[in-house]
Structures are given as structure tokens and as C-alpha cells.
Amino acid sequence: MPRSVSGVEMRKRQAAHIEAPPQAPGQPRSNTCCLCWCGCCKCLWNEDRMDRSERQTCTKMDSIEAAEEQRASLEEVLSWSRSFELMLRSLEGREVFREFLRSEYSEDNLLFWLACEDLKKETSTALVDEKARIIYEDYVSILSPKEVSLDSRVREGINQTLTEPSSLMYEEAQFQIYTLMHRDSFPRFLNSTVYRDHLATRRRLCLDT
Predict the structure, then answer these.
(1) Could you tell me the pTM of the whole model?
(2) 119 pLDDT above the threshold of 80
């Protein structure tokens, strides 16, 4: 069983970038890499990721992750307007969407959803307990420093599971946030200057090449 990781250390590891390509509710999970809050693997969000020169000897999973670092094509950026899921599966798409959410003071919704994705992939009992506690303290508790748009019924359901944390304890809350982002935030994102400017920049780069 992996050694327990302190809350402070784990928060440092989840700070900058987020998760492997996510999945839509109801779809089977792919065997993608975890968020690496525990530093258990080499992925895009690991603070100790390899230098580009070392990627010549990377594994198949490292190759997939390294490929995702490449800049999104114009076609891919255009595809985001047709599919919320396609945007979330793109590292660049998640970063641009996160920038937009930050402008609306709702970035925490995305961070919470991705943290729940990571928790669902965890198999270590010790790490499930630790990550579940951190998610609760950061996003759900009335004393939480972050704001997540959960209704009182869902929060109460979470409170009732605190004594026996599980990797699926936030599943209903996660679905509620996914639906909120999809139906509410995403349409505004597509009409925002954040997305339009990003698309215009990609078009200019395409013309220059």
C-alpha cells in the first residue's frame, strides 16, 4: 500500500494542471493516467515530468501524454464549438475553458469535477480517504475556501458518507457540476472573447504556416 501523503503536499501536486482526458457521465472509463496528486506516475500534470530530450525512451502512455502537449489544430479548436466533451478531452481546450471560468469566478467547478475524476480512479484505500477528505475540505464544507455550485440535498448526501469515504462518494455531485458547466457555462464560453480570440489566433497561425 502506498505511503500516506500529507494534505499540504498533495495540494501542491494538484495546483497547476489537471487530470488525464476526462470521460462523459455514463461512458466507460479508459485506462488513462491519473492526476498524479500522489506522484504515482509520469504524466503531463506531474511536477517532475521528464525533459523533452528524455521522452525518446518514454513508454506508450508517456507517448500519448507527450502528444497531447502539442498545440491543438485549427480543426480541433473549431470542434470544441460542436462538443463539450471534445473540448474537455483536449489539454488546450481545458486550459482555455478554465481561463474563461476564472473570468466568471467559477473555475472551482471545473477543478472539483476533475478532482472527482481522479478520486474515482484511485484504488488505494489510504489515498481514497486522503483525497476524499481534501475534496470535502476544499470544495464541499461550509468552511471551504472555494465555491462549488452544489445544492443542499447533494451536500447533505455527501455529509452522510463522510464516516466511510469511497471513490464514488462524490459521483452525484460531480454529475451535477458537469451538467451545470455543459448547459450554463459552455454556451457562454463559445460566445466569449476568450474562445473567439483563441480561435482567431489559431487561424492566423494556420495562415502563416
Answers:
(1) 0.66
(2) yes
